[in-house]
TrEMBL record:
Substrate binds at R179, R202, E297. The lineage of its organism: Bacteria, Pseudomonadati, Pseudomonadota, Alphaproteobacteria, Candidatus Puniceispirillales. Converts 2,5-diamino-6-(ribosylamino)-4(3h)-pyrimidinone 5'-phosphate into 5-amino-6-(ribosylamino)-2,4(1h,3h)-pyrimidinedione 5'-phosphate. GO terms for biological process: riboflavin biosynthetic process. Its cofactor is Zn(2+). This is Riboflavin biosynthesis protein RibD. Keywords: Hydrolase, Metal-binding, Multifunctional enzyme, NADP, Oxidoreductase, Riboflavin biosynthesis, Zinc. It comes from Puniceispirillum marinum (strain IMCC1322).
């Protein structure tokens, strides 16, 4: 099962709306004859990939799967049927599939065919790999991870607004791995205008694993020549704007290949000038679009809004050894404590030194 889970990990951020699943087939002789994970864009499923590798030798063997094999005719035939037809004798499963079309039916089908089924093996580990998918099933929105890079004293830019590179190349590579493990990335127009980022994964070997890109730009100020709009055949870019945004700007951006999605404005925050898009609605839209893991790489105003709305599940905080001084721009703009739900706490789940910098991963405590 550990091996099946390590297969599943390879599909995180690369299985479209599908959960990242791993499958390993062991022959009756005890030989490992097949292994695979949910394919890029979600299909074929892990079992099909592993069974194809095992071929005839699967007959009489055991399958280890991190998620209950599917029972439905969706975009592919049911994996439970594929396992039965391959002559598998025993199936070991980590977790049950919460998808209403499956949810226990896969196990029932296997047992009805006389297969020995064992459940709940390694389920904690398998759940954590599929966290994004499970979160979307339950909450109808993606698992939201914020990545922030700060100085030792919590700043992101000098007091006069000048940007400095804070973290060193090994940490920047780590961030590209994080992007590759995300289905989508969300940023704001402030970051586009200040940094003109590409927001892709450019690590050698992972270039095809860039997340789709989403920009919050209520007034459509994004320049049609922005780098984030390049390469949008391979990596689509969607801009969320207010319904009142300029039609001319929309036409120009669509010519650059961007998809424009008008969204509701958060009425509570609308001061007439700075329209703030409704983050709840945007996350719901992303959930409906099948985004399991969303990475937010944005400046302090979006980071502050999304934290104040209590929508952040995980924080990847990268911290350099620099000091920027007390007039530095903080990662989180002054946040009125009353805006924070009393219950919100983040617990450190991991820390690590990467190059000269420190990585701290925190998860919302329930
Ligand atoms: C499996 N093995 O590797 C995965 C499964 O749209 P479809 O037909 O691809 O079905 C999607 C559903 O299948 C998805 O919501 C989840 O319940 C299950 N994913 N099942 O047997 C796999 N990725
Ligand atoms: Zn399946």
């Amino acid at each position: 099962m550990r091996y099946a889970i390590s297969e599943a990990r390879k599909a995180v951020g690369r299985a479209a709306e599908n959960p990242p699943v791993g499958c390993v087939i062991i022959a009756a002789s005890g030989q490992l004859i097949g292994a695979g994970h949910t394919a890029r864009t979600g299909r074929p499923h892990a079992e099909t990939v592993a069974l194809a590798m095992a071929g005839q030798r699967a007959h009489g063997g055991t399958a280890y799967v991190t998620l209950e094999p599917c029972a439905h005719h969706g975009q592919t035939p049911p994996c439970a049927t594929a396992l039965i037809e391959a002559g598998i004798r025993r199936v070991v499963i980590a977790c049950q599939d919460p998808d209403r079309r499956v949810n226990g039916k896969g196990v029932t089908m296997l047992r009805a065919a006389g297969i020995d089924v064992i459940t709940d093996i390694g389920s904690d580990m398998a759940y954590s790999v599929m966290q994004g998918f499970l979160h979307r099933m339950v909450h109808k929105r993606p698992l939201v991870t914020i990545k922030t890079a700060t100085s030792l004293d919590g700043g992101i830019a000098l007091g006069d607004g000048r940007k400095v590179w804070l973290t060193s190349p090994p940490m920047r590579r780590y961030v590209h791995v994080l992007r590759s493990k995300s289905d989508a990335i969300l940023t704001g127009i402030g970051t586009i205008l200040a940094d003109d980022p590409e927001m892709t994964c450019r690590l050698p070997g992972l270039e095809h694993d860039s997340p789709s890109r989403f920009i919050l730009d209520s007034q459509l100020r994004c320049p049609p020549g922005a780098k984030i709009l390049q390469n949008n055949n391979a990596v689509p870019t969607v801009i969320f704007c207010a319904e009142t945004a300029s039609p001319d700007a929309r036409i120009a951006l669509e010519k650059s290949g961007a998809v424009i999605v008008p969204m509701a404005v958060d009425k509570a925050q609308d001061d007439g000038l700075q329209k703030r898009l409704d983050l709840q609605k945007i996350l719901r839209y992303l959930g409906d679009a099948g985004v399991n893991n969303l990475l937010v790489e944005a400046g302090s105003s979006i980071v502050t809004s999304i934290i104040a709305d209590d929508l952040v599940d995980v924080i990847h905080w990268t911290q350099s050894q620099h000091l920027l001084g007390s007039d530095a721009i903080p990662a989180i703009s002054p946040l009125k404590l009353v805006a924070l739900p009393e219950q919100t706490r983040y617990t450190e789940t991991h820390h690590q030194q990467i190059g000269r910098d420190r990585l701290t991963i925190l998860a919302k405590s329930l």
